[in-house]
## 1
Amino acid sequence: MRFFLRRAAFYLFTAWAAITINFFLPRMMKGDPVSAYLQKNQGTISPEAIESLRTLFGVDTDASLLRQYIDYWGLMFAGDLGRSFSKGLAPVADVIAVALPWTIGLVGIATIIGFFVGTSLGTIIGWRRGSRADALVPIATFFSTVPYFWMGLIAIALLSSTLGWFPASHAYSKGARPGLTLEFVADVIEHGALPALTIVLASLGGWILGMRNMMITVLDEDYVTVAQAKGLSPRRVMVSYAARNAVLPQLSSFALSLGFIVGGTLVMELVFSYPGLGKLLLDATTAKDYPLIQGLFLVITLAVLAANILADVAYAALDPRTRQTEA
C-alpha cells in the first residue's frame, strides 16, 4: 500500500505541474488566440464581441493571472477546454474527441501488436542464441533505421499502387457513411492495414533487440541455472523464469510508446492522409489555434502519465522487489 501511495502522490504532483505549465506556456508566447482570430476576421467583429471573445478564450485582461488560473482549473474539471477558432469556435473537447479514436484505434493497436510480436521473437531468439534465428535481428533492425516517411512511401508505391492490395490513403473510402456496420468497419480495417503494417515494421527491431539482449543477460543468472537443474521443461524455464524477468525493462519502453501514441503520429498521418491527433496538432499550430494546441498538449501529457502508471503497476506485479524497495 505504501508503494502505491508514494507513486500516486508522485503522479498527482507531476499532473499538477504539467497542467500548470500548460496554462502558463501559451500566455508566455507572443500574441494570443483572440488576436489570431481577429486577423482572420478583420472588420467583422465589434469591440463588444472582442471583449466577449477574450473572456471565452480565458485571456480576459481585466482578470488577474491567479483568477484566470483558478478559472482554468474549474473549466478543466467541467470538461471545458475552450473553443477552437480554426474549427468554427467548436469546443476543443469535441474536436479532440473526433480525432482521438482514429489515432488510438490505428496506432494503439499497431503498437501493441509490434510490442507482443517483437518481444516474443526476442524471447525465442535470445533463448536460442547462436542459432539461425539470430539472422532476424539485423533484418528487423534495418527496417527500424529506415526513415518512416520513406518506408511509408515505399509501402504505398509497392503494396498500393503496384499490387493494389491496400488503399493508399485516408481512413475510409470517399462517400462511405460512418457507422457501426460491418461494411464500414471492414472498410476502415482495409484502409488502416497499410499504415499499421509500416508502424509494426518500424518498431519491431527495437523490441526484438531489446528483449534478445535482456534474455542473454538473464540466462546467466543463478535462478535460471537452478530451474534447469531441477529438471523443469525448457518452455517453463524460458517463459516463467527467463522471460518474466527479461521483459521488465521492456515495459518501461512500452509505457512510453503508449503514452506518445496520441502525439507521435504526425508523420504517419501526413504520409497516409490519415485523420488523427498528429494531423490535428499540425493544423492547430499552423493556424496558431492556441486553445486547441493547449488541449492537445493536455491530452498528450495525461496519456503519458496514464501509460506510466500502468507500467508501474505491471512492473510491481511482475517484480515484488520493486514494491519492497519503494516501501
## 2
Amino acid sequence: MILTVTPNPSLDRTYEVPALDRGEVVRATGERLDPGGKGVNVSRAVSAAGVATLAVLPLGGVPGELVATLLRDQGIVAVPVPVAGHTRSNISVAEPDGTLTKINAPGPELSADEAESLLTAVAAGSQDADWVACCGSLPRGLAPSWYAALAARAHEAGARIALDTSGPALLAALAERPDVVKPNAEELAEAVGRPLSTVGDAVKAAEELRERGARAVLASLGADGQLLVDATGLHFGSAPVGTVRSNVGAGDASLAGFLAAGGTGPQALAAAVAHGAAAVQLPGSVMPTPADLVPDAVTVTSEVPLDRALMEPAA
C-alpha cells in the first residue's frame, strides 16, 4: 500500500485554449476539474495502476469539500485533516503547442495544532504502508523541517519514504535518509547550488544528494528522460513522446509508476518513464491508466550519456 501526503492540496481547473492572448476574451475548447496536489496525483495514478493507496491531506472550506468529493468519485480512499483555512484553487491554461500557463494560489496557513494533526494522521496510516510518498510544497505555517519530522515518524513505523519536494524542505529532510527523492532538473540544480547543462552534470548532482543522505535519486530531466542513481548503480531511461498536451502531474505520474513497480532498480525506472511519457499526452492533470502506457517504447540503459547536453538546461 502506498500512502501519500499532500500538505498543500488544491482544486485544479484546467482550460484548453486555441491561444492565450493577454487582455483578450479567450474561449476555451476544453475544461477539466480535478483534485490536485502532487501527492493526490500520485494516489490517483497508483490507484489507476491497481495498487492500494491512501491519501492524507488537509482540507478546508468549500474547495476542500469538492476535493474530497472528487477523490471519492475516483475511488481514492482519503484521510482528510480538517483545517480552518480554505483549500487553494489553481488554474492551468494549456495551448495546442504544449505551452502551459499556471496560476497557483498560496493556500491556507496551517496552525501548529493542524500541523501536528497532519503528522499524527500520517503516522497512523504508515503502520500499514509499504511506501509513504511526501509530495509538494509546504503550506504557510509548516517549517522546512516538517518533512524531516514526517520521515522520521514514517521510518519508525517501518515504511519507506519517497520525497518529492524542493528547496529548504528537501535539504532538511535528507538528514532522515529518505529512500528515494524525486527532483526535476531545476530542483536538482537548486539543491546543489549550480547549473546543470549535461546529463553528466545531473549525475554528479544526484550523487551529491546521495552523499547528503538520500538513498536513491530519481531525477526527471524533461524531454531528455529520467535518471536513477541508487545502490544498483546509474540508469538512464527515455521514451518517445508524440503530442504534448499537458505536463501537469507528469512527474507525479512518474513517481507513481516507480513506486508501483517496487521503487528500486531499472525495472522501476522503466515504469516511471512509461507513466511520465503517457501523462504528458493526456489533458490537464489526467493520470494515465495501464491502457495509456507503452512499455515497449521505453529504453533503459546503464550506459548513461554523460556528455549529452540537456534540451532544457537548469540554471
